[in-house]
UniProtKB/TrEMBL annotation:
Gene source species: Nocardioides currus
One Pfam family here: DUF3027
Protein name in the entry: DUF3027 domain-containing protein
InterPro entries from the UniProt entry: DUF3027
Recorded superkingdom: Bacteria
Amino acid sequence: MIDLDETSPDAILAAAVEDARAAVLELTGGGDVGEHLGVHHEDELVVTHTFACTRPGYVGWHWSVTVTRDADATRATVNEAVLLPGSDAIVAPSWVPYKERLQPGDLSPGDLLPVEDEDPRLVPTYLVGDDPLDPDARAQVRQVAGDLGLGRVRTLSIEGRDMAAERWYAGDGGPEAPLAKSAPDSCWSCGFLVRLAGPLSDTFGVCANGNANDDGKVVTLDHGCGAHSEVKLARKQQPIPVPDHVFDTLTDDELESL
C-alpha cells in the first residue's frame, strides 16, 4: 500500500520496491525478508519502504529501507536499511539508570551507594572556604570542623525533608494504609509512640511496640493499628476461660498403690 500524506511520495522512489528489497537481501544474506508492507513519504525526494521480517523470534518486526534520488536522477539510491520493531514486537524495556532502579531493601552488606555532591536533599553544614573545589582546603576545613565537634559535613535540606515526609505519609506508616483504616485508635494517643524531634515532630513518630507490625518504623500521628496501648477486648472477643482441673475422688489412683 502507499501512504498518502499531504504530499504524495515521489513516483520513481515509490516504485523502487525491488531496489529496496535487494538492499535488504544483501544485508541479510538472502533471507528473512517477507512481503512488501508499504511505502511511506518522508520528504520531497525521500521515501521509506517496509518489508515483513521472517526471522525466527522477530514476530512483529519489519525491515525499513529508506531511498532517495537526485532531482535529475531516474533511479533510487538506498540511504539505509534497518530492522525495526513494530507495535506488536517484543522488545527489551527502556534502560533505567541503576540509581532509579534501586528500591529500599536492595542494598546488601558491603554494598555502597554514593550520594552526588549536588544532591538537592542535602546542604552543607558549614562552608569550606572561597575555593570549595580545592581538595587541600576542603580537607583542612573538615579537619578543623571535626576537632571543634561541628558534626556532619552535610545535613538534610528543606527539600530533602519534604521529600521524606511525603514518602512516609504515603507509605505503609501513613493514614491511608489498610492497617490504619481498620485501627481502633490513632498513634498520637498510643503509649508506644516515640515522637521525633525537629520540624517533623508535629506529624511523625516512631513505633516502639515490639508486637506491632510497625515496630521501629516511622509512622504518622494519624496512623494506627490493632496493637494500640489502650485497646481493650470486648467480652465476646475475650478468650474462653479454661476451667479448673477436676479432682477425682471416686477412682483409685494406681500410682498411690505402688
